[in-house]
Design a protein that fits this description.
The protein has 378 residues and is an alpha/beta fold. It has 2 domains: 202 residues, Alanine racemase (TIM Barrel, Alpha-Beta Barrel), CATH 3.20.20; 129 residues, Lyase, Ornithine Decarboxylase, Chain A, domain 1. Strands 1, 10, 13, 14, 15, 16, 17, 18 and 19 form a 9-stranded mixed β-sheet that branches. Strands 2, 3, 4, 5, 6, 7, 8 and 9 form an 8-stranded parallel β-sheet that branches. A two-stranded antiparallel ribbon has the order 11-12. A hairpin with a 5-residue loop joins strand 11 and strand 12. The chain is elongated. It starts with 8 loop residues before the first strand and ends with a strand. The model has no long low-confidence stretch (mean pLDDT 95).
Length: 378
């Protein structure tokens, strides 16, 4: 093990691949639009501080987060002029902190807009805001056809100390091949946006495009596009794949024990694994407490070791799991196993784990920050 490691399991972040992806995405953005990099959830588990450096090297100055705590972290090292937009709804008790951190927040009612306006006026500052409109996600914001949506958002745009820079909405089905619902959301978004613009509100930095729309649909770009998962190599092998995109994250571990066992030998909790021949079983020192999915055990998953796939066996434990390496030649304690990533010509993607376990690759990478040490490749 290398000196920086504190256990025989780790995450590797390839910042060279991240830089490549950012450049690829930026080249797809429509003229006049800006890239707002979505760095929430510690950059989807890829480490916000390190990814921020790469984003700044690529000229990105707009960043999307989901919680005030994320804005606090980002403000501790970002440039004062960087724009930080919070995607979740703010509330009145936090207007002082929002002003302290200069966060662009979403307006969903006049009560919050008035409270933020009062605080900004008291400080003698101007706070950027965006109106948030639900065009079909069913999550947050004014309903697009609410009779008061245009009136109230326009009123908020006139409050002293506030500068509305556009409206914000989120696409729910843009990664589907059928764009019917996304097109309908676009129509609804445009109806509200154009009505506000007709009244004189500044709509120059309106934002609708998520990762797939950023890569493939320039007509949805408006002022700010919001790539997130695509920066980290998501959306591979699907209808919205971005050619040339590369995975950024790998999970690796060293074998800590090898055990030769007989036929019909039981393994793990509930005796959930059972050999069907004399077998060699390897133990890896990471588990579901490290962000892996428990269902990846019991033969649902596999790792790569010495250029071969080896299936998991038995339920994954909190801190360890076992794989059957009977068919892997020359295996020994200390050999490097790839849980997510590439080795030789073989690859296991976080999406592979997610698909096998009924979840998303993003859920897996977001959870990996719990305990695993990180190694950054530059």
């Amino acid at each position: 093990m290398e000196k920086w490691m504190n256990r025989p399991a780790w995450v590797e972040i390839d910042l060279r691949a991240f830089d490549h992806n950012v450049k690829l995405i930026k080249a797809r953005i429509a003229p006049g639009a800006r890239m707002m990099a979505v760095v929430k959830a510690d950059c989807y588990g890829h480490n916000m501080r390190e990814c921020y450096k790469v984003l700044k090297e690529n000229g990105v100055t707009d960043f999307g987060i989901a919680a005030i705590s994320e804005a606090q972290e980002l403000r501790s090292y970002c440039e004062p002029t960087d724009r930080i937009v919070m995607f979740s709804l703010p509330s009145v008790p936090f207007v002082e902190t929002i002003c302290d951190l200069n966060i662009v927040t979403l307006i969903q009612n006049l009560e919050y807009a008035k409270a933020l306006s009062d605080e900004a006026v008291k400080r003698g500052i101007t706070m950027e805001v965006m109106g948030v409109v639900d065009t079909g996600m069913g999550r947050i914001g004014y309903q697009w056809d609410d009779p008061v949506v245009v009136d109230e958002l326009y009123e908020a745009s006139t409050y002293p100390g506030l500068h509305m820079i556009g409206i914000f909405s989120h696409l729910s089905c843009e990664d589907f091949e059928d764009k019917y619902w996304s097109d309908l959301q676009h129509e609804r978004f445009e109806k509200v946006r154009s009505a506000l613009e007709a009244r004189g509100a500044d709509m120059s930095l309106s934002s609708l495009a998520n990762s797939p729309a950023t890569s493939h649909r320039p007509q949805l770009h408006y002022g700010l596009v919001r790539p997130g998962g695509s920066m980290f190599g998501r959306y591979q092998n699907c209808c919205v794949e971005l050619p040339g995109i590369e995975p950024v994250l790998s999970v690796k571990a060293n074998i800590v024990q090898l055990k030769d066992v007989p036929d019909n030998f039981s393994i793990s909790y509930e005796r959930s694994g059972r050999t069907s021949r004399p077998s060699r079983i390897a133990t890896l020192a990471l588990g579901f407490a490290d962000g892996l999915i428990r269902a990846w055990g019991r033969g649902n998953g596999r790792v790569i070791v010495n250029g071969h796939f080896a299936p998991t066996i038995g339920n994954m434990c909190m801190d360890q799991f076992m794989v059957d390496v009977t068919d892997v030649p020359d295996v020994k304690v200390g050999d490097e196993c790839v849980i997510i990533g590439r080795q030789g010509g073989l690859e296991i993607r976080c999406e592979d784990m997610g698909n096998a376990c009924g979840t998303l690759g993003n859920e897996i990478t977001c959870a990996l920050t719990a305990r695993l040490p990180y190694k950054f490749i530059r």
